[in-house]
């Protein structure tokens, strides 16, 4: 599941990616004509709408892609950079940039493209923007109030409107297509162009414009990756088919004492339940956060056994389905549940004098194991080996 | 040799959108441009007046975010890539030339001054708005960020509002 940095690609390699992405970015912008300042400002005077077309097509394409990738479970939206909203600075900054755009004829990205192919005015723009950036950084104490005011956090537009992302994307797509239609008419009028589109061209345009609606329709009517897993969880028949390998209380006690470094003991109950009572060395991954990116490594490895326990067998089976949907790992379930384990191992009952040799042996084993586990827990606490892995959210942004 | 025609804008848009999507998929972040300028300017301040750099709050915040300077900053390297990518594109399409592009009624000097003023405003605005057309507007739109989309409307809205008054810069 994406993003691939830093789990799959290292942060160092990410810099190479940045360079390659930049090359593609510059190439596309230049090919689109963004190195020409008169083409860029054309949209404000009605003679050339290239910027609008490229910009909105790109925005809608990427937006639909993000929605689709998240729907298919390829991209974890909670981990990507969502530009934070600082209401005043977002609007005031935008208004100042608009002024800069119409006076200077470039924006920062396009000025670099134009500079690269030898435009002298672009050099003036780049120098100007460096001075502007410097002015902000030097004047930061004066601007800090504005810069930090009305922090709404990493909120999205559909969230604030309280509508689904699909509906929002549909609205943006319709807006973009509407804008393309009207600007084409305006451009014809301004440039006194009287040519008509051929039938073939019209068919091409319709074929192109229909793609976003197909994607949105698909996302709208099919259950997402998460939803489909949760549907399986609620289906009795599928639930019963998914079974972990079973591990008994005594076997787990043995594993904990002798092979604790080869197992992950996973408590899938709620954090509250975990806090109240949990087995030594267990980590807490509540059922509803098992799909989170931070655990994907755990359910996708063959070095350690995962031993689950839950409050009910039903919840254990749910954990099994989720784990299987994430990856291949060696998964077990503590059949007796945590409370039985606790009672048998930590408060074993003496079988008394009349019991068989076997019962006595078991009693002794449990007594010893209970002590060893508590001892181990103390030692491990000191070196902090049960610390949970932190997932860092990707940093990003332009300003 | 003649300059080649520009790419169909919708095709360019789709390609740019796919690039942005892949960037988000791989790195978890979008494209940018003004952030690259920021890293290089801050890097220059660090080299030229290190004592000032060490004693100024904003630079110290930046230093904490990306300690390696512009050549270790994501957007710094991306911007170097943009220069190279655009150069390659210009070379392929025969558009490499030392040139100054301007409106029909504008002198060269006026154009350079206007470009520098525009650049100044854009650089200042991009830092206030936490990103420019690439980082805030386009990348923000891709992830449906409220702030990014508001910035986008503000940029285009203000440019349209002022376009009439500065028309002499661009049209007859």
The share of residues in extended strands of chain A comes to 5-15%
Helix content of chain B: 55-70%
Computed structural class of chain A: alpha/beta
| Discrete helix count of chain A | 17
Oligomer: heterodimer
Assign a percent range to the helix content of chain A: 55-70%
Largest interface: A-B, 135 and 124 residues
Instruction: Give unreliable regions of chain A as ranges.
Output: 385-389
Secondary structure: elements and pairs:
The complex is a heterodimer of chains A (399) and B (172).
Chain A (H helix, E strand, L loop, with lengths): L10 H22 L4 H9 L4 H22 L13 E2 H18 L3 H9 L3 H19 L1 H9 L2 E3 L3 H5 L3 H26 L8 H23 L3 H10 L1 H6 L3 E3 L1 H11 L3 E5 L3 H6 L6 E2 L20 E5 L3 H14 L3 E5 L2 H10 L10 H27 L16
Parallel strand pairs in A: 3-7, 4-5, 4-6, 6-7
Antiparallel strand pairs in A: 1-2
Helix pairs in contact in A: 1-5, 3-9, 3-10, 5-6, 9-10, 11-15, 13-17
Chain B lengths: L8 H19 L6 H15 L1 H6 L1 H9 L8 H19 L15 H21 L4 H10 L3 H18 L9
Helix pairs in contact in B: 2-5, 7-8
Q: Can you walk me through this structure?
A:
The complex is a heterodimer of chains A (399) and B (172). Chain A is of the alpha/beta class and 399 residues long. Chain A contains 17 helices and seven strands. Chain A has helices spanning 11-32, 37-45, 50-71, 87-104, 108-116, 120-138, 140-148, 157-161, 165-190, 199-221, 225-234, 236-241, 249-259, 271-276, 313-326, 337-346, 357-383; strands at residues 85-86, 151-153, 245-247, 263-267, 283-284, 305-309, 330-334. In chain A, strands 3-7-6-4-5 form a five-stranded parallel beta sheet. A two-stranded antiparallel ribbon of chain A has the order 1-2. Chain A is elongated, with a radius of gyration of 30 Å. In chain A, 39% of the residues are buried. Chain B has helices at residues 9-27, 34-48, 50-55, 57-65, 74-92, 108-128, 133-142, 146-163. By secondary structure, chain B is mostly helical. Chain B has a domain at 32-98. The model of chain B has no long low-confidence stretch (mean pLDDT 93). Chain B is built from eight helices and no strands. Chain B is globular, with a radius of gyration of 18 Å.
């Amino acid at each position: 599941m994406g993003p691939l940095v830093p789990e799959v690609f290292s942060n160092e390699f990410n810099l190479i990616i940045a360079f390659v992405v930049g090359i593609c970015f510059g190439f596309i912008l230049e090919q689109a004509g963004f190195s020409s300042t008169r083409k860029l400002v054309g949209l404000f005077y009605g003679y050339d709408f290239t910027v609008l077309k490229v910009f909105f097509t790109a925005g809608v394409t990427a937006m639909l892609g993000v929605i689709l990738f998240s729907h298919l479970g390829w991209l974890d939206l909670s981990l990507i950079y969502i530009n934070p909203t600082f209401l005043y600075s977002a609007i005031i900054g935008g208004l100042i940039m608009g002024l800069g755009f119409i006076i200077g004829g470039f924006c920062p990205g396009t000025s670099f493209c134009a500079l690269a192919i030898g435009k002298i005015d672009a050099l003036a723009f780049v120098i100007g923007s460096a001075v502007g950036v410097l002015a902000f950084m030097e004047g930061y104490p004066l601007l800090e109030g504005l810069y930090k005011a009305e922090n709404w956090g990493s909120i999205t537009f559909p969230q604030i409107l309280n509508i689904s992302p699909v509906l929002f994307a549909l609205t943006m797509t319709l807006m973009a297509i509407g804008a393309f239609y009207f600007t084409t008419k305006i451009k014809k009028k301004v440039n006194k162009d009287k040519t008509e589109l051929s039938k073939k061209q019209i068919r091409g345009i319709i074929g192109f414009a229909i793609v976003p609606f197909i994607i949105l329709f698909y996302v709208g009517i099919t259950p997402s990756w998460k939803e489909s897993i949760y549907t399986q969880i609620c289906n009795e028949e599928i639930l019963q088919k998914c079974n972990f390998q079973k591990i008994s209380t005594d076997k787990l006690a043995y594993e904990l004492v002798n092979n604790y470094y080869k197992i992950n003991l996973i408590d899938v109950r709620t954090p509250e339940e975990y806090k109240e009572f949990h087995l030594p060395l267990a980590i807490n991954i509540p059922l509803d956060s098992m799909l989170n990116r931070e655990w994907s490594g755990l359910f996708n490895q063959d070095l350690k056994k995962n031993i689950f326990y839950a409050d009910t067998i039903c919840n254990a089976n749910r954990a099994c389905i989720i784990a299987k949907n994430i990856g291949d790992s060696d998964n077990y379930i503590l059949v007796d549940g945590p409370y039985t384990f606790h009672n048998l191992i930590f408060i074993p009952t003496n079988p008394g004098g009349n019991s068989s040799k076997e019962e006595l042996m078991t009693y002794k084993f449990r007594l010893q194991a209970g002590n060893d586990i508590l001892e181990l827990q103390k030692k491990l606490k000191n070196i902090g080996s049960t610390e949970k892995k932190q997932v860092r959210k990707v940093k990003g942004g332009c300003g | 040799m003649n300059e080649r025609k520009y790419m169909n804008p919708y095709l360019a848009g789709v390609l740019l959108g796919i690039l942005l999507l892949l960037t988000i998929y791989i790195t978890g972040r979008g494209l940018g441009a003004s952030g690259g300028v920021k890293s290089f300017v801050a890097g220059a301040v660090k080299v030229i007046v290190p004592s000032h750099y060490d004693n100024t709050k904003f630079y110290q915040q930046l230093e904490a975010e990306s300690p390696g300077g512009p050549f270790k900053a994501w957007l710094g390297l991306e911007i170097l890539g943009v220069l190279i990518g655009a150069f390659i594109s210009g070379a392929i399409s025969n558009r490499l030339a030392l040139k100054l592009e301007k409106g029909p009624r504008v002198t060269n000097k006026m154009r350079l001054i206007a470009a520098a003023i525009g650049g100044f405003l854009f650089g200042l605005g991009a830092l206030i708005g936490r990103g420019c057309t690439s980082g805030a507007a386009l990348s923000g739109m891709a992830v449906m960020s409220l702030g990014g989309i508001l910035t986008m409307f503000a940029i285009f809205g203000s440019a349209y509002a002022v376009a009439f008054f500065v028309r002499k810069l661009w049209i007859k």
